[in-house]
Amino acid sequence: xxxxxxxxxxxxxxxxxxxxxxxxxxxxxxxxxxxxxxxxxxxxxxxxxxxxxxxxxxxxxxxxxxxxxxxxxxxxxxxxxxxxxxxxxxxxxxxxxxxxxxxxxxxxxxxxxxxxxxxxxxxxxxxxxxxxxxxxxxxxxxxxxxxxxxxxxxxxxxxxxxxxxxxxxxxxxxxxxxxxxxxxxxxxxxxxxxxxxxxxxxxxxxxxxxxxxxxxxxxxxxxxxxxxxxxxxxxxxxxxxxxxxxxxxxxxxxxxxxxxxxxxxxxxxxxxx
Amino acid sequence: xxxxxxxxxxxxxxxxxxxxxxxxxxxxxxxxxxxxxxxxxxxxxxxxxxxxxxxxxxxxxxxxxxxxxxxxxxxxxxxxxxxxxxxxxxxxxxxxxxxxxxxxxxxxxxxxxxxxxxxxxxxxxxxxxxxxxxxxxxxxxxxxxxxxxxxxxxxxxxxxxxxxxxxxxxxxxxxxxxxxxxxxxxxxxxxxxxxxxxxxxxxxxxxxxxxxxxxxxxxxxxxxxxxxxxxxxxxxxxxxxxxxxxxxxxxxxxxxxxxxxxxxxxxxxxxxxxxxxxxxxxxx
Amino acid sequence: xxxxxxxxxxxxxxxxxxxxxxxxxxxxxxxxxxxxxxxxxxxxxxxxxxxxxxxxxxxxxxxxxxxxxxxxxxxxxxxxxxxxxxxxxxxxxxxxxxxxxxxxxxxxxxxxxxxxxxxxxxxxxxxxxxxxxxxxxxxxxxxxxxxxxxxxxxxxxxxxxxxxxxxxxxxxxxxxxxxxxxxxxxxxxxxxxxxxxxxxxxxxxxxxxxxxxxxxxxxxxxxxxxxxxxxxxxxxxxxxxxxxxxxxxxxxxxxxxxxxxxxxxxxxxxxxxxxxxxxxxxxxxxxxx
Lengths: 273, 284, 289
Prior knowledge:
heterotrimer, A: 273 residues, alpha/beta, D-Maltodextrin-Binding Protein, domain 2, 10 strands, B: 284 residues, MetI-like fold, two-stranded antiparallel ribbon, 11 helices
């Protein structure tokens, strides 16, 4: 019995000392975060690595929350986010000795999408809120066909949801029947194959299989998003610990450059200016 | 009598129908994966990294990532598993301790894979500061593979006839020599099959590596155990749920699934074939 | 007489088996350490019975009742499909089929048990769900029904191969006695073979249950993900495992949301642990007979 306990504690002690030499090399950049920013980060990483073959950039998804969390824990170099950092998160960063810097890298609009067969062309922000909280359950209440509304939403922790929550829902709770999907991609695919569906996704994800409707009479376009007249517009960010220096800094400068912004456009987003 | 006969034929027909439905589903399933996957399969697909925002190119880094995850995890789990099995079979004292170890093995075997993922994240990634890395993922997978390997090794060693052991001891060999030179070599083919089956399981797991090892995109192959890696199963999931170009990514997901299935199934088929052969040739 | 080498070797094997215990306690320790602090804020009763799952809301609510329901419905559906198919196939293979078919079917079933779950998920998401939506004219193909089918087919090989083992250990003399008394094959199967193999079959079903309720990738990809009380089998649900997988990446380490996901994993662990314990008891009963 005594022997067992002694050996057991030795085993535990051995296990705990196992990993201590984790070290990041300087030519390795890791990014993680928003699935909305993912295609931009991925495509930019690809182009950047073509230019500088000795650098490796690893791109992970997860969601805006995971990026910020990973930055707080010091496990990534760049956190991708589809929303500004929350004051709570900034405080959490500071308490862990991380001083975050914020870099806008693209503009994006959250497009409200419906099935192509749907005749509805425009919804007010209030109508969108009533649909998502379950007050309006049929398209005929908002000038559409007699068809039950299928609510498609994003996972509550995604950056897209948070912006939608803030700008459209005003923090009202999404109805329990809503399907909470894990990605923009899944939202678009589901809406495209579901006649009564309404969903929302980053503009870059919208394709011809779904119909984009106006919000409060404004169509999401390059101009309306840049001048913020479209109600559901936002900026996409990269966060770093301290001012971005060295290879990390060069990578962010690359994305903000004309060449990088071409990539942004090619992925379906709106360039910075 | 007629009633009984009709009942009999009807019952057997229903049983046959069950097998038929099972087979039908599996045929549709395999045909779909194979058909869709085959279209994108090419040398370039398995030898180059993804390109053009994951809509073109191949899955080479994911294949290599899965390879390393599997190798490292088995390299950790195999010795641990065999040594544990030796203890259980050959020494087996004190009894209460053996009981506890057995309960632990059985409990580990039933733990859902997502909980392994949480464990790996909490312990290896966060507590031990390994970050999301090949090492953290491999260790998580090693813990997951351990009960399978122990059970296989234990069963294999118990299958070695008692006379072998007694003969060896009678000739003056020590317990250790008996284990290492008689029991292990005899049990080896069966241990091998068990290990190979666990390789198949480890290579296909997604949930345990989601938070411990996997990354969406990395062009370079892993250079050290502390690099994060792409992996085939996670790649399938990521292609289906992340990225902007669904129409172009679904076929790639099918192609990746075909490669993964091919690897896992051929590994398992080898194991089953070896076992089949052992059963035929061994006389004890 | 025993040399130090022998002692050392014995010691090494002993230490190795300690690892197993350390790992199990590591798992239990990590999920309880990270998950239990939630209950300082949310009562266990509220956690288990509230239907409000709003973990990231300004005033977060952590009720997993709908998630528990989701897990149970999907698992139940999977077993409703897997038990008849798996058991039926097992009986057919061992009692009716020719030895030749048996030689082929047995390894094929084992092979199928090793297909990665994410591939099943892909099949369900990209093929079955759209197909069912079109055929049955549903609002969405990602629902209890389609995830039950996929999950059920994943469990079939487990139930089939284990009950086949149990059935084939039933002594031949029992069957022969039954036939000699003039019983038909069907009567022999239902009244002699199945009762004799009962505990092994129940064990295989429990194992299938444990596998289905703990499965993550299939439900994550196919169940739709709404945290609601489903009104029909064509509604989407959000099982516990997929909640953990979908949201864990989004949390800040140590905050309430993070803790709540670990708390879900505690519930999941307890469910699978108890299932496992019962399975062991069933098997122990068999081996002592």
